[in-house]
Amino acid sequence: MGKITGFMEFERLEQAHEPVKQRKTHFREFITPLNPQQAKKQAARCMDCGTPFCTFSCPLNNVAPEFNDLIYNEKWEEAYRVLAATNNFPEFTSRVCPALCENGCVMNYTNVAMGVKSIERAIITNAWNQGWVKPEPAAGSREKSVAVIGSGPAGLACAQQLARKGYAVTVFEKNKRPGGLLRYGIPDFKLDKSLIDRRIAQMEAEGVRFNCGTSIGIKEHPDGVWSDAERVIDPQELLRDFSAVVLAIGSETPRDLKVAGRELKGVHFAMEYLPSQNKINADEAAHKEISAQDKKVLIIGGGDTGSDCLGTAIRQGASKVLQIDLGPKPPETYDKSSVWPNWPNVYRVSTSQEEGGERAYAISTTEFISNKKGSVKGVKAVRLEWTSDPITGRRMKKEIPGSEFEIEADLVLLAMGFVQPSEPVLKAFGVQTDIRGNAKAAYEGVDAFKTNVPKVFAAGDCRRGQSLVVRALAEGRRCAEAVDKYLEEEDNL
Ligand SMILES: Cc1cc2nc3c(=O)[nH]c(=O)nc-3n(C[C@H](O)[C@H](O)[C@H](O)COP(=O)(O)OP(=O)(O)OC[C@H]3O[C@@H](n4cnc5c(N)ncnc54)[C@H](O)[C@@H]3O)c2cc1C
Description:
This protein is of the alpha/beta class. It contains 21 helices and 20 strands. The chain has 3 domains: 125 residues, Fumarate Reductase Iron-sulfur Protein, Chain B, domain 2; 184 residues, FAD/NAD(P)-binding domain, CATH 3.50.50.60; 159 residues, FAD/NAD(P)-binding domain.
């Protein structure tokens, strides 16, 4: 513990954000990391409580009390080593993670949580600036090869861990560049893509090979699944050529809204819209360019993907943006004594939502309305009443009679979540699915990450369902351990 009385002396300091008016005019990042003096003071707030709920709350089990203490004592390089020991890519999580660790922080229970995320960002920013982040190639080769399918956070973390153990790892990715949703889903203003390029260069120097523009199993991906694939490889070929195969294909099948008028022009899935802007920013040819400029935009879905659409539409110059949710508005406050250290259902305002647009709740869309040219000009909707079943506590919804109304919109973005990984790809491997259509594999135990198909493993969103970057990283790391164990056991046999 750096400073025994730190938590009583210092207030939490947020990282500086570029003012809304300026940041709305560009697609670049707009948050400035804490400087070393600020980080030191913030690190002093850590109480080093006997039971580090921050560590347990983080899927990567980041050791925040340790790096806080090191930062307070100005041991920056050691702090970086502690951070990197549990997290392959802290520059990603320190930008896009909702910070489950901060929610679990004991100070959050009675006061204001530690700024773990901002300290993490200061550590990794400084580490890159100082040249401490270097390739860490394996000492020797294991003479076994692993194919990782998918280059999102799960695939990247898994590939890096295995390469550092000496395996010959090839990452296959259907899109033009590696990164998965980090690259083509999350907008540039939340995560600058040069950070991914820098990591890919590090991984290549560690021996990882990237085979992009290559789809495994299927050439044509359904609507709403972005694909730049130029070639297809048969799964049987990978099973023949590699000692193990890891499926890290994400959960890309979007939830659709199959009501009348769905086929109209101007109705798009979020993952048709967001990649097109990220590609334009990167000077990559986007085969679908969708712009919100001068349009009335309706975003259906109140979650983070919807919020990313909102920030993007505002930057593109939308004339109006409305984000609607089926669910009721979450409460503004919550009872910490009954929820902490678990994640609360509470009203939140994202940085994009700070920038403009409106939000509305408990609304169900019943029809898309067409103009004379077959383009969308609005939707029909109805208001919902939400109640709880008195016995089971389950939330129930019913339409409020007579509450039908229309919303004008000439661009409608469907951001209602993702239902499952690509079924044809799993089928092509013969991988069994669970009740939700995810690749069936355990998270723990002797069979962790193993699918029903010998030598085929699954990790990340394709195993657990659409989730968070931090969870995908944790899955990738743990899956690498499972693959390593499996290949070692094979050797012993
Ligand atoms: C718009 C959006 C914004 C988000 N924002 C955040 C955020 O701010 N913070 C956060 O924590 N989480 C966020 N998430 C969730 C997070 O991005 C995911 O949970 C995470 O990326 C999952 O990682 P993954 O590696 O399992 O899959 P993905 O990142 O989805 O990567 C899977 C990769 O597999 C490739 N692939 C699929 N099929 C094939 C095939 N047949 N052959 C070759 N390659 C294939 C895909 O092209 C893709 O690159 C967001 C999600 C979305 C959709």
